[in-house]
Amino acid sequence: MSIRIPRSVALGAATVLAAGSISMIGSVAAYADSPSPTIGTLAVNPATGADDELMSVVSSGSCPGGTNLQTLVFGQGFPVDGYGVSLNQAQSVFPPDAQGRLTVPLNDTMRSFAQKNGFTTLSGKYEFHLRCRAKIGTTYFGDFVGAIWFTSPTAYTSTDPNAPAATATTTALTVTPNGSATVGSDVTLSATVSPAASGTVQFLDGTTAIGSPVAVTSGQASLTSNALTEGAHSLSAVFTSTDAAFLGSTSAATSYTISPKGAAATTTALAVSPAGSAAKGTPVQLSATVTAGAEGTVDFKDNGTVIGSQAVSGGTAQLSTSSLAEGDHSFTAAFTPADPAKFAASASAAVAFTVTPVVTPPPSGSTPPAPVSETITTTVAPGALVISVAGSNVTLPPLTLNSTSTLFSTTGPIQTVTVTDTRAGAPGWSVSGQVAQFSSGANAINAQNLGWAPNLVSKGDSLKVTLGGQVNPANAVEANDTGVLGLKSARTLATATGLGTAKFGADLTLLAPTSTLAGTYQGVLTLTAI
Predict the structure, then answer these.
(1) Side-chain half-sphere of 21: how many Cα atoms within 13 Å?
(2) What pLDDT digit, counting tens, does each position of 91-128 carry?
(3) Are 310 and 268 a contacting pair, CB within 8 Å?
(4) Is residue 28 situated within a structural domain?
């Protein structure tokens, strides 16, 4: 099937300026050196969207100082030192969530911000900085930094379309001493990040930061503190990647108790019988062993929920249960002293356990009935292969003379191409493109002079996509040249196997000889899916 972009608009209007009026069009985005250090990452919500949508930014942590917040955007069309897209407001207006993250809405759309800065076409990368700052002046405490990419003038994504997919990480937290400590004693929090990636770890007590972010070295980060207050705590570790190839991650929360100063430290160990697993309904015994002489109670927990409490007698406490549900369980034992001033609380390590279904054997000597059958009928619809484009108009900037005055050139993206395949059997598909001669009245630009570099905007998880290779334009050949270079011949945009939807783009390059006469030249790009 083919889509032929109608009217004289397919590659828009590439204009050659009349002699004596050639000017340079476009500029490279520039960023000023930031006066504020990067202290974490920034996510955009929604992660993909349009230029007329409102969005928010979400930090990877809380501000280490300052009283106020402000969001700035950097990129092509905006000032090199950034443009404010949220007000300079008090940090108290944006309370952190349970992971210490801040959510700040932008006060308008990207389309509106562009118009306010005198341009209308959003293109490429735009970087956001959520800046922790003083209310007035230029005292800054650090920036959370993130970016979006406009893959067409009206659509953006939070993923660099030219970068490989980021690898997920996991973060595990261990606390020493295990379970509890006394007021004023050292507590060491150690995080393990896997796979090992560059970045920092912020240790948290609930939503409150413990110290400053710690650099990760060979997958490890640790911090020792004696500032935890008496009582119960929920400790966690948040990894923020500084390598675009890896994602951040957060550890599971670890319950911890700080006992009064002078209380003797205790240890609690847990054993489960039978070990490892048991059938549903089988009695399972949990046995806790506590430091000799310590009096108090033990709370037995299943996945963090208390399933029973027993007094410690002779250094042990036991609980038996036969009501565990089928599936995976994680048991812990938490000791609470009867006299907190004398003994400290402690908790065991987790013990994994699985409850399996009950298998009932048939009665001895019984004869099973003859099997019965049912015929199950269903239908697989033939499905369809559909191709569409985001818009039928592509306007390239005016052709400009190169530095050696040997040819004209211009560049720009095509409209996003969407291919959806629901066909039974998943036969796979291929999309190719071919352009006709550019014309302006009786004048022409050879179609060989157009090339492209395909790119992937997005795809479904079940699709395996291979992009077509870069097609270089001919070197500004004359209109009457009969060669077959560039997009004068059909060239592959992408191929795929599997079912689902994929979206593609391509960056165009158009050259023209210096003999090209002034005018508005138009050509038709035909995209075919088979």
Answers:
(1) 7
(2) 999 999 877 899 999 999 999 999 999 999 999 999 99
(3) no
(4) no
